[in-house]
Amino acid sequence: MAKGSKSRSRGESGASDLTLASAEEQLAALGRREVSSEELTQAYLDRIHRFDGALNAIASLDEEGARAAARRCDEARESNRGALHGLPMTVKDGWEVAGIRSTAGIPALKDYVPAHDSQVVSRIRSAGAVILGKTNIPTANADFQTSNPVFGRTNNPWDLSRTPGGSCGGGAAAVASGM
Hints:
- By secondary structure, the protein is α+β, with helices and mostly antiparallel strands.
- The chain is built from 6 helices and 5 strands, in the order αααβαβαβββα.
- α3 (37-55) runs antiparallel to α4 (63-75).
């Protein structure tokens, strides 16, 4: 939804409508308690299960960790609210996320699970974001298309015969499809 446009009604579709809204609109809905972080997180997980089979945008998914983080955000709504409090999101596979496989698409790292977050991920978490998982990238982030020998190719949601390209191709496909 474009910046400055009117907020849509949550109606029956509720949190699932929000997966296609801007982060700003999602945060506003969370702040107004129109939706809980847990509901929004589940809506994203539902979309991932629905669309990622054809897209291959999500390299690693942490459903249990995301649900637990969302629950903690909902329980702490009144305290320690960071700028991204309760907002579900993914990070590209090039960033280390504690407890989630981090490969950068490199076969030698296919089983690497870091114990600590990278500085970027640490800051995102400190701001209150809920990490759903990791998105696919080109091998070592060093190509103009999104394919690697660990996770394979990410497909463009508007034309499955193409890849979204670039270092954020998995993230781009995820955003475009509301995942």
